[in-house]
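Please, structure for the following, as tokens.
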Amino acid sequence: MSKRILNTNNCIFKCSALAGSITILPFPPTFKDGNGQALTKNTKLCCNGICSILTSSAGGVPTPCTQVCIGSWIKGIELNKKINNVSLLNQNAMIMCPVGGQITATLKPLIPPVSVDTPAMPTADTGVRQNETTSDKDKNDSLKDEKNSHEENNRDKKEVTEEKVLSDTETDKEETEEKKSTEKEKKKYDFALCPYENCEKAENCPYIQAASTIDTKGAASKLRRNSSAKERDYDELADIHMQKYEISWGNQAHHMISINDAYCRYPELVKLGNYFGYDINCKENCYFLPAWEKGDGYGEKPTHYKKAQAYEVMVLSGLQWHVGQHNYRIELPQEIISKYPQLRTMKCYSDKINEDVKKLVIILKKRFENGCPKENYEKNRNYFIEKMNGLSTKIEEHLDIFGTYPKDSIPYYVSAEALRYAFEIPRSEKVIFVKKEGNDWIFRKYKYTKYLKNNNQVFMEETDRFVYRDKRACILFCESITCFLIADESRSFKLPFKYCVYTQYISDSDIDRKDTHFSALTASASDKGSSYVFPKRMISERLKEL
């Protein structure tokens, strides 16, 4: 079936990424085809509207498209039909815009010819009624003829209808097959960064044929298998800490360049990766991090206990806690954000990695927009893999420094707890630990200190103690301290005041790890963003409660 030649009046153009219109710009005159000027490979299209690709790149800010597309037709070129030695375009015409949108031609419906029914000629009025001049026999014959004529008309209509249905079915089938063929042809060129429309070998090029997707099923297991040496090194160091402090935890093989949140969001990058033999599950992209251990009931624990466990493991391992989503929400108190300006533009791990990968894609587009990946294959392959591994190395350096100075890992925090650990736990704080001894409740005052230069170890130095018998004396002893850790699983003991108080009850089995519980408690207090209260005012407000 021959394809219609496009002209300025018989078609419109639509872009997969554009919410707007596309205009055919004036160009040197060619011959008239039908009622419009025929379109050739030199046709220029001007886009006007909001581009979804540019909008996504701008973080959701509606961004207009002002592209003028010319010379990138990948489909619908009539090689044997030319004017002024320039090929014409047919109804399958397709062009790629510079930002990645696909512009296709859509034919306007043909206007069918208007059929004019010939009106029946009226019979002459003889002034004689039919029933007066027609016998009964003639009347019956007339009725019979009318019935036969009616049946014949119905039969003709039925045959026409059936022919039309068959014709429409065949047309639909042809259009469906043509659409599938077009989509298959179009898919072959999807996400290619090279100038394939000008390449004679593009049809059978292995780069063009390379897939733009990967199978992500079982990716974590593949990453672990490919990184066995890294896992052994991690386990040796983790076992030393576990034996020394009588604690255990699991581990997680972490993709530094995330698969679904970053790599697979850029099919053009995946296509290059498949062509050059890059594996996102390679050991260079793996970093082992601590996580909760199966069977320890982590998911059922209250929030404070989860936080305390995470902080304890981060202190002992010097590594970020992996549990939780990488696309967490950053909800730090304004006082902390004001103190650390770098937090004002802080992005969660997923968003930051996605930003890094997007920059890498732009670099690769510039490299291949005027060249062929197949030429100097080894050189191009080494360049691509060096760029991917280079990004992994950059992330790895930020993860490594967490054990020395957690704040320098910014902005690469794999979990919200790792971010909170770095910025919410105070360097120094006064805290009170309450425990029953005999019949008395004993208040112990501690100076809590986190030493940054000693693997972030927390030290608790007891500075004073008080036997609780009088409420007023208790308030004066507690001064302006706000964090209280109470060893009373039944929660029967209550402090004699409520003003500016952050409490946490623990069981006797948790007493040996009270420093970790204080870390979680002080971080929670910081998270609430409470403002500073002068000691005299705090004591005064607490005394009013009496």
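DSSP finds 15 helices and 17 strands in the chain. Residues 136-189 form the longest helix (54 residues).
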